[in-house]
Design brief:
Elements lengths: L4 H4 L10 E5 L2 E9 L6 H22 L10 E6 L4 H4 L8 E8 L5 H12 L12 E5 L2 E9 L6 H14 L2 E3 L3 E5 L12 E10 L1
Antiparallel strand pairs: 1-6, 2-4, 2-5, 3-4, 3-8, 6-9, 7-9, 8-9
Helix pairs in contact: 2-4
């Protein structure tokens, strides 16, 4: 039976109202980078590595009778100046970690096997040496569903950072987290659905 973790995990469900949630400790495939995702070759190379590895791991897992739906692309984003997200939107100054969530039964040995198999292909993914498995424990977080272009996130992020979080006697910790529920190649920008998440803790 194929498991769809988007349906099982409540942290992959969000409304257009800012809310405080608890996120379980989860495992991800991760690749780090820097720069404007619209212009960076490294960003494109990261995606062209993450997806093949994720699908290879799914295939390996399916052969062990543990089939699952490949999860959506996610990203951690940060900058030396956080105003790069809420006002200036200077993407050239953004650091990022692109990710795809993996079930807990996926092991480093399975990742090594997947990478070895992919490395033998003629069109091997470009960043196989840079991909890793790592757990992320965000715990208490604020999140909201954003519907629209990625470039239109500034207003809701400003409300999250400067109003909702301090009003609830919380402070930001960790990194800004985005979960891309829509495929931008198939859906117009105004219909894109993205979960915006910020880990927090009590003041």
């Amino acid at each position: 039976m194929k498991i769809d973790f988007k349906k099982q995990l409540t942290c992959y469900k969000a409304s257009r109202k800012l809310e405080i949630i608890e996120v379980p400790k989860l495992q991800y495939l991760m690749i780090d980078g820097f720069g404007d995702p619209n212009a960076s070759k490294m960003y494109q190379d990261a995606l062209h590595t993450l997806y093949p590895v994720a699908y290879k791991l799914k295939f390996i897992s399916k052969n062990l009778n543990k089939d699952f739906v490949v999860m959506p692309l996610e990203g951690l984003w940060w900058a030396d100046q956080m105003d790069s997200f809420t006002s200036a939107r200077d993407k050239s100054q953004w650091h990022w970690t692109m990710m795809i969530m993996q079930p807990s039964h996926i092991t480093p040995e399975m990742l090594k096997d997947a990478k070895l198999k992919l490395a033998q292909q003629k069109d091997a993914p470009p960043l196989l040496d840079d991909i890793r498995l790592e757990y992320l424990n965000e715990a208490t977080s604020v999140q909201v569903l954003h519907v629209g272009s990625y470039d239109d996130e500034a207003d809701i992020l400003a409300k999250m950072h400067h109003e909702f979080i301090p009003e609830n006697k919380l402070k930001m910790v960790g990194k800004h987290h985005e979960i891309y529920l829509s495929d931008p190649r198939k859906i117009s920008p105004e219909k894109l659905k993205t979960i915006l998440r910020q880990p927090v803790e009590n003041l």
